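Revision sheet: structure tokens.
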Amino acid sequence: MKSLLPHRLKQVSSFSRLHLSCQLLRSFSSNSKKWNSTANPNLKITHPTLLLIESCNSMSQARQIQAHMIRSGLILHLFPVSRLLSFIALDENGDLRHANAIFSEILEPNVYIWNTIVRGYVRKGFFDMGFCYFVRMVEECVEMDKRSYVFGLKACGGMRDFRVGESLYCRIWKVGLVEDVIVRNGLIHFYCESGKLSCASRVFYESETRDVVSWTSLIDGYVKNEKVDEALKVFDEMCESDVEPNEVTMVAVFAACAQKGDLRVGERIREFVETRGVRFSLNMMNSMLDMYVKCGGLEKAREIFAEMEVKDVFSWTSMIDGHAKNGEVELARKLFDEMPLRNVVSWNAMIGCYSQNNRPKQALELFHEMERQGLDPMESTLVSVLSACAQSGSMDIGQRIHYYYVNQKRIPLTIIVGNALVDMYAKCGNINAAREIFDEMTKKDLVSYNSMIVAYASHGHVDEAFSIFERIGKVGIKPDDITFVGILSACANGGLVEKGWVYFRDMELFGLKPLMEHYACMIDLLGRVGLLEQAFELLKSMPTEPDEAVWGALLNGCRMHGNVELGKVAAEKLIALDPKDSGTYVLLASLCAHKRKWVDVRMARSMMRDKGIKKTPGSSSIEVEGEFHDFLVGDESHPDSEAIYRVLGEILLFSKMDDNDNTLGTYLPD
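Predicted:
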């Protein structure tokens, strides 16, 4: 402990130490306990300095206590220094570097102190370092207890190192702790973290004694590995056993219900909780709230939220997510503005709300505000923002995000981020940049390939779309419905009827049945090349009633090839499905006008007047230096409208002069 102690310890009187301790205790008394909230109930602490440690809430306070312990000589005793180390290593306000410095100066640390430093690194996510300290315990022949092995297993689980964990399991057998319930619970947790659920299940069912932690660990493991039905099955077995679930168990069970999306099951679990008298902790209330939101029970979620006496950031954010999924953007924003405390997840939820509900302008504005407040975005934040860039065509903002966050390694190029960048560049018209990102991605999933196929299809690069489709089979990924929507769209853009029919029929080879979108693509393909009768026959053979997209594809084909009679049939169906859509009447009028069916043109326009339907005016949006400007046809509301129209007039004038020069050039001799 030399570096922590002055060369000479000044003796202070008991009265002075007590007076100083009482002063410090008064200054810390408002702080809540965190690291020691589950302390041993048999542990009774009466020493004033140790009481200070128990109520400590920051590193500045911890350093004051440490200085006082150095002066008083208390730091030379193992129990006091172990309590100080526990706060610094385990509390969320602690400092692992400082904890390591204290640990390195303890001449003969006991097993509790060793366990504390291992646990501290594991809790903060530094699993490799935690395991290194565990290995040191083995090398220095520390007499380990059962908790030492539990923390070692947690380190292995965090490292996802199954081989090392199995070696540790062998050591547990060797020292005779394999039947201890705490150690077996650690083994169940390790196997679940490693994704070895069959091993976790084996350890669980081979255990002679199972406590609430055993059951909860297995249930939570199934939930985290998205095995919802298995998790609920184990919970049903637990209910038939003599072990009562606690609030931690119910958090995992409500999470299973949320994943399953079955409100009926969620309601049954809630009734169980109320019947058994399980304590309604804040975490369990949040889990139940999240379940209702994800299962579509927003009204129930509102009731729970209103009744909650204590709400945290998670509570507020869950409700924002619920309103976002329900399309209630204003209510989501109202909650966001009312939040007493926000974190990056809250900002992410609100940005995602705007992006999901086709409000890219507000999403990007909120993202800029988030950056101005100094918050670092998460991976999911960037995905929402890149989606907003794709919707609004704001490629310059998307490029800035790409270069600043991804290229400069602030956010790794994961599959999700890569897919979002591919989609953004493709929808903003830069297909080459989209392909560069695609090729740069070291790992790809089906969404990656689908994004690239759809990108090439929408830009008319038919051969490239087919090439990507062929690569899917080579890498062993099974195509899905979206894959075939993309490839059929490519066939439609290329007018490749035979190839389209082949892909359409091949869907069954992959266990897929054509959906509405696939029929719409095929009818669009047949309509574009003038095979309108074939398109109509395919439409009539559909197993379900055609929707607006299918009839719209047929009407567009009729307009392209002047089939008025079939076009009128398609228009009637579209009007019946959506009588307020002005586009149908305009297309029908355009078709009839092209064939000089003026009576039908007047009829289409008359129907629009009678129903009070007005043609949706053409609009455009441009983003300049982070600010969006929207324009409608004939719009003069923009503050710079006069200058804009003047410049537009000059451009048209120059364009006409250029045309005249070209025309004149054709008559001049060489």
